[in-house]
């Protein structure tokens, strides 16, 4: 059945008209890609590393990269670039920035098969200026590649069912596996696929022609086996997992608020309203987007009650939020009279302006939304002496920016002997993990420098104290 959500050629979209506007579509997509590249490479090397980024430069095991099956391709690319060009913030972030930029056209073309031109272009534009996507494109981590793999898989899964294409189902399975290979967080998106099929049947949606036993067996048979292979090592060492991730760090409401902030409050609100209104049309595409946007968030909110969680675990779901907004704008263009289509332009401009405002603060006031480790450690390098102790929560970032001739100590190390100058760095986790030690330092040490980064909803503390007992 033809719907305004799906790209179908009919009497109102004949081949000559499609050809007439194809060059405009290509021009706009090229402009969006150029904008995305410009934003992602702007000040790419100016932000300080944060600990996880420095860890990406190393070769020691992080518990995930022991075997080829579970080895992060993005981490390998980061380390390969650094091995050729040398270690620096810009070089380490080069691969994630390129992947983040190329994600826009790579996701656009399969999306274009499910969403008409105006809506699909709007999704591409929103992704280009998304604060969350820019942040991970400017971080030496694996999240942009996970995002790309997962959402390509999501679109091919949908198209495979809609068009009864078994090869699309197999390709989706491979892409989901590659996403999980980047990090297990990708598995948080898989329950949405199961829920999608359950709701299609239980709510008596019109079934896609590819919803048959063959396609389901091709996809879910290997998926269950692969999921078991990925998860089994962690189940065998559940106590070790809980030692590493058993502490509680965020509440469900904090995760909800943080996710909405990174998606963008105006965009999340428009996508949510669009989802509620479009759900009445019983569109299968909208249903899948709703479930893939909401299910991972609900899962990490529940997980936060018994283990460590973070908003970044559901970063891949950003695409579904953006796509819901694109579908909503497409419906305005399709269903309202020509004179009222200005509303779609006004909403589009407002959503893009809100995202650009976030980016302006990100680049000018918020230090790339990350703690300023480089500033704090550079201060110590300029004012410290050989043999001084530096108390920090992270060894990797200390060694990268400071190292010799300073002596590293953890926050829970014994107090230094008399006559030893000691520098203390307070960052985001110190108050949570070492409250007693921090209280002692704040009462006894001299505050020397403050590099706090202020965001609308949180502060990244970065403070330097010094004790000189000589």
Write a compact overview of the structure shown:
With 470 residues, the chain is mostly helical.
Helix content: 55-70%
Strand content is 5-15%
Major sheet characteristics:
5 strands, mixed
H and E order: HHHHHHHHHHHHHHHHHEHEEHHEEEE
Helical stretch tally: 20
Quickly count the domains.
Answer: 2
**Which regions contain 5 or more consecutive residues with pLDDT less than 50?**
6-12
Rg from C-alpha positions? 24 Å
Record the strand order, biggest sheet: 2-1-3-7-4
Compute the average pLDDT. 89
Global structural class? mainly alpha
Q: Give the termini distance in whole angstroms.
A: 82 Å
- SS elements, strand count: 7
Looking at the structure, what is the overall shape?
Answer: globular
Descriptive account of the structure:
The protein is mainly α. It folds into two domains: 15-367, no CATH class; 373-467. It has helices at 15-41, 51-57, 73-85, 89-112, 117-128, 131-137, 143-163, 166-182, 190-202, 213-236, 238-245, 252-263, 265-278, 284-303, 318-335, 342-364, 373-383, 395-401, 430-433, 435-444; strands at 389-391, 407-409, 422-426, 446-450, 453-454, 459-460, 463-467. The strands form two sheets. The protein has a five-stranded mixed beta sheet with strand order 2-1-3-7-4, with helices on both faces. A two-stranded antiparallel sheet has the order 5-6. The radius of gyration is 24 Å and the shape is globular.
């Amino acid at each position: 059945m033809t719907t305004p959500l799906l790209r179908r050629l009919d009497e109102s979209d004949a081949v000559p008209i499609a050809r007439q506007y194809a060059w405009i579509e290509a021009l706009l997509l090229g402009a969006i890609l150029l904008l995305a590249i410009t934003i992602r490479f702007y000040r790419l090397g100016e932000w300080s590393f944060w600990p996880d980024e420095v860890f990406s430069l190393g070769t020691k095991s992080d518990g995930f990269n022991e075997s080829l099956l579970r080895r992060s391709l993005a981490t390998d690319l980061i380390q390969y670039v650094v091995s050729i060009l040398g270690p620096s913030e810009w070089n380490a972030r080069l691969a994630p920035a390129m992947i983040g930029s190329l994600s826009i056209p790579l996701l656009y073309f399969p999306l274009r098969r499910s969403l008409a031109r105006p809506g699909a272009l709007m999704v591409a534009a929103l992704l280009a200026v998304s604060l969350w996507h820019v942040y991970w494109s400017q971080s030496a981590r694996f999240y942009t590649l996970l995002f790309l793999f997962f959402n390509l898989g999501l679109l091919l899964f949908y198209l495979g069912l809609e068009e009864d294409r078994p090869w699309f189902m197999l390709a989706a399975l491979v892409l989901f596996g590659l996403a999980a290979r980047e990090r297990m967080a990708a598995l948080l998106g898989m329950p949405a696929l199961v829920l999608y099929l359950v709701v299609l049947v239980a709510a008596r949606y019109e079934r896609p022609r590819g919803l048959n036993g063959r396609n389901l067996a091709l996809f879910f048979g290997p998926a269950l086996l692969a999921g078991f292979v990925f998860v089994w090592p962690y189940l065998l060492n559940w106590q070790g997992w809980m030692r590493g991730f058993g502490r509680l760090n965020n509440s469900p409401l904090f995760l909800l608020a943080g996710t909405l902030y990174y998606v963008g409050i105006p965009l999340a609100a428009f996508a949510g309203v669009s989802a509620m209104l479009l759900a009445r049309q019983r569109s299968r595409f909208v249903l899948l987007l709703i479930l893939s946007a909401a299910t991972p968030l609900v899962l990490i909110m529940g997980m936060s009650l018994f283990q460590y969680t973070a908003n970044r675990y559901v970063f891949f779901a950003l695409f579904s939020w953006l796509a819901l907004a694109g579908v909503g704008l497409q419906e305005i263009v399709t269903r309202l009279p020509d004179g009222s289509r200005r509303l779609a332009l006004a909403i589009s401009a407002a959503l893009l302006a809100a995202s650009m405002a976030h980016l302006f603060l990100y680049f000018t006031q918020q230090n790339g939304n990350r703690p300023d480790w480089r500033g704090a450690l550079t201060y110590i390098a300029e004012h410290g002496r050989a043999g001084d102790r530096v108390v920090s929560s992270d060894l990797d970032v200390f060694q990268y920016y400071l190292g010799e001739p300073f002596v590293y100590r953890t926050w829970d190390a014994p107090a230094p002997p008399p006559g030893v100058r000691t520098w203390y760095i307070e960052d985001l986790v110190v108050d949570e993990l070492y409250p007693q030690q921090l209280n002692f330092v704040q009462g006894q040490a001299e505050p020397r420098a403050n590099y706090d980064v202020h965001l609308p909803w949180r502060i990244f503390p970065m403070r330097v104290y010094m004790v000189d007992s000589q």
